[in-house]
Design brief:
The structure is a single chain. The chain folds into two domains: 30 residues; 123 residues, no CATH class. The chain contains two helices and eleven strands; from the N terminus they run ααβββββββββββ. Strand 6 and strand 7 form a beta hairpin.
Length: 162
């Protein structure tokens, strides 16, 4: 009888420990969803109202960053365009993306005005000024012809494809 009681107590203790572990796992925050790179630019996210005209004009992807402010517009068949509010612009011809991993695409383009490397990661991004969330985190390395060293910029992106 004593052995039976010990076995019962041991079984209950293990059950409680496993329940605590599963409760702890349920309380952990959700991690970023990883989507294969071949669907990175194709995901249909709610398009902000201010970008619906750009989507109608054929823009497939838009990214923005702040401090300093900048934006990227990409029409996958026509161009990648970097702009700033103070009039700096670099427009490149379209380039094919290189899949870095299952959730990251890299675009490299160069013109006589400069070169850029645009990395788009399927990882939720929170704009540090507005608090808005986007489906993509963007890293941009840009070297204009008059720059002494490359600019390394970070921001958030949204697919405008329907």
């Amino acid at each position: 009888m004593r052995n039976l009681l010990l076995i019962l107590l041991f079984t209950m203790a293990i059950s409680c420990e496993q329940k605590q572990k599963s409760d702890q796992q349920a309380e952990e925050p959700a991690t970023d969803t990883i989507v294969p790179a071949d669907t990175t630019i194709k995901m249909n996210i709610n398009i902000p109202e201010r970008w619906k005209q750009k989507a109608a004009a054929g823009i497939d992807f838009i990214a923005t960053g702040n401090e300093p402010f900048w934006s990227i517009e990409m029409d996958e068949e026509k161009f990648i365009r970097y702009t700033t509010p103070d009039g700096v612009e670099l427009t490149t011809p379209p380039v094919k993306a290189v899949n870095i991993d299952a959730a990251t695409k890299l675009y490299k383009a160069e013109t006589e005005m400069g070169k850029l490397e645009l990395q788009i990661m399927n990882k939720v991004c929170i704009n540090d000024m507005s608090g808005d969330s986007s489906a993509y985190t963007v890293h941009l390395t840009l070297k204009l012809k008059n720059d002494e060293k490359p600019r390394v910029l970070h921001g958030c992106g949204t697919s405008l494809k329907q």
